[in-house]
Amino acid sequence: MELNEWSGRIEGISAAYGEYFAVERTPEWVLLKLTEEVGELTQAYLASSGQGRNRGKSDDELRQDLEGEVADAFAMILVFARSAGIDIESALTTKWLPWEKFHADRAAGLAPEPLAHRWPEPSDDDSQASS
Questions:
Q1: Sign of the alpha-carbon torsion through 102, 105, 111, 116
Q2: Higher confidence at residue 1 or residue 115?
Q3: Backbone Cα Rg of the chain
Q4: Quick one: where's region Disordered (predicted)?
């Protein structure tokens, strides 16, 4: 199934959810719901990686929780993109796929190396100015 087809099907499920629970699915609600799902994904990851409470769940149950939360967060990204009028396949193609060629060229020695991303070393004048 193509991503835009997934988006349409998930949008239908989300719309039915809104109707069933009498939730007005405004753009703000969709973004807040996405934020909620990312929080739940974080919680599931922390539990499955041993960095959070496992609530007495087995490793298999923790893995199932993590997979479910990844699906929920991804679904809400699709719903959000659709509500914002974004064609997710086109957006991904435009934003991410050009980097395939760049990194292939880089691996072949044909692209520039990245600039160093660090703060300049402090000078003697800088240390005296903060005194």
A1: positive
A2: 1
A3: 22
A4: 112-131
Supply 50's token pair. Answer: 């041993």
Which pLDDT tens digit goes with each residue over 83-121? 999 999 999 999 999 999 888 988 898 877 776 655 566
pTM: 0.79
What domains are defined for the chain? 3-90 (1.10.287.1080)
Closest CA to 82 of 21, 19, 31: 31
Placement of tokens 């600039």 in the chain: 115
